[in-house]
Structure to design on (180 residues):
């Protein structure tokens, strides 16, 4: 557990011989790592990116084109989300109005059924016949009151022809009459 809390850098170049020629690490790098290892031994605190930038004296520069593109992309995302939310709100309102109209339709159908049953019970055939017999003094028609009409005197067909006004049409009609 004690090893997890430490943030020390290990310099393996300390174990190498300086006289050997197969060393690939340049001398200047070795000196930096030795001084960095000594500094790490003296001060075991972790550096942050802000500390490094402050030491360098540099501030990160932002490109105006990148900032503008980020702002436009952000506005596009916000606009898309606003459109989706507005669409969902309208959809919810329409669903509520459909539900209200459906409930109103059910009530009207129930009322229609109820009124239809009342009308049928009041004006049934038996009740109308009884009212006509008792109140109006009417009775059913008998055979001697019925008069039958005969409409079948045979089938007739009449052809209407126009009278010819000139002699040529009468000759043509006569010739066609012969051939037919």
């Amino acid at each position: 557990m004690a090893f997890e809390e430490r943030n020390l850098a290990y310099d393996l170049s300390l174990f190498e011989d300086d006289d050997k020629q197969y060393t690939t690490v340049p001398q200047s790098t070795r000196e930096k790592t030795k001084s960095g290892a000594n500094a790490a031994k003296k001060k075991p605190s972790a550096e942050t990116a802000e500390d490094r930038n402050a030491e360098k004296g540099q501030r990160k520069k932002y490109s105006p084109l990148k900032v503008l593109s980020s702002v436009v992309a952000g506005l596009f995302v916000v606009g898309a989300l606003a459109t989706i939310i507005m669409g969902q709100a309208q959809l919810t309102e329409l669903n509520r109005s459909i539900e209200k109209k459906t409930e109103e339709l059910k009530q009207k159908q129930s009322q229609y059924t109820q009124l239809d049953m009342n009308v049928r019970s009041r004006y049934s055939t038996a009740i109308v016949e009884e009212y006509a017999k008792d109140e109006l003094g009417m009775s059913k028609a008998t055979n001697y009151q019925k008069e039958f009409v005969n409409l079948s005197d045979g089938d007739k067909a009449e052809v209407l022809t126009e009278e010819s006004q000139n002699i040529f049409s009468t000759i043509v009609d006569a010739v066609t009459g012969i051939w037919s």
Summary: The CA atoms of residues 168 and 174 lie 10 Å apart. Residues 2-56 form one domain. The two ends are 125 Å apart (CA to CA).
